[in-house]
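User: quick one, fold this
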Amino acid sequence: MQSCYNDFSIVQSQTINNTMDMVIKSCDIMIENIKSKIDNHHHLENQSSNVIRILDIGSSHGRNSIIPINLIISNVLKQFPSQCFEVYHEDLPENNFSLLFKEISDNKNSYIKLSNQIYFYGIGNSFYNQLVPSNTIDYVFSFSASHWSNYDVTFHYNPDSIGVYCKERSKEYKQYCIDTLYKNFSLRAKELKKGGIFMVTVMNENETSLPIESNVLFQLFTLSKTIWKQMANENLITISEVDKMIIPINFYRKDEILASIKMVENHHRLKLITIEQHIQKFSDNHSIILSDQEKSEILFSYMNAACEPSLKNFINGDQSTKDSLYQLFCSKFINQIKISPIKNIEHLFSYYSIILEKD
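Assistant:
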């Protein structure tokens, strides 16, 4: 992730805030499951000898991760004041884990301030791999991460956009989405202890009757590809590089999500507790009196913070070349939205918040 990700991850933070009631609900389930495991002949205080392990999927630089972890640990400490915790933060190997550790150590609201029995670690790996030994985790959460996918040229290709939006889904892509989500869910099921919780948000593709062209992300991704094509026409980058350029993410449909959940229930005993749809709105975080240009620039900064590394992967050359071309792209994009900003920026995207419990 870009070094400024913590400063431009407000949308991701709002996703977490919108689901805090579900975090509380899922944490309560985990605590009750822990209590039920304790032998009737022992006092609850004996639970403190057993470490509670929390796995954070897609941590980036950590600021947003602190929010749910604070809540989880605080609620557990109310029941088990001497409880010991281990927190594992996962992201890709190229993530700047130094910034993550600094955020956890220096942030005045960090969860490590809650107790002297909290230990934290970084895992540089893809969440499409098993991250920890089986049956070791009590609580896994994944906010604003599950839409990221391994790049597959068969499905992640759009000559006119840096994102994949499908007016009509092919049978093959639909099955790919189900299998990709199932792989994520099944790996988390393996990592969880019996009674453990998986709290996840899954981005949802536009399934309304509105034309896809009116979707804000569709406009943002399409304009981005247009700018890159202009740079190719100026011989600043090759058209072959631009043609392949895409962000490897999937926007799932509800039936695909439910199909994946059904599979993981049948094969890994990870049962559905709750699923709720949420709408992410621009006005959740910003004044509605901003101009279209100001909104467009803010929206671009969010996309840029999350997607810059993925786009740079398609640029040939050394790091200096990648950096300079990407900076030029940013300048051209900002100039373009000064002339013709994206309109009607309010409904950004929808997503499903899901609680799963290992039976």
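User: anything notable?
Assistant: The radius of gyration is 21 Å.
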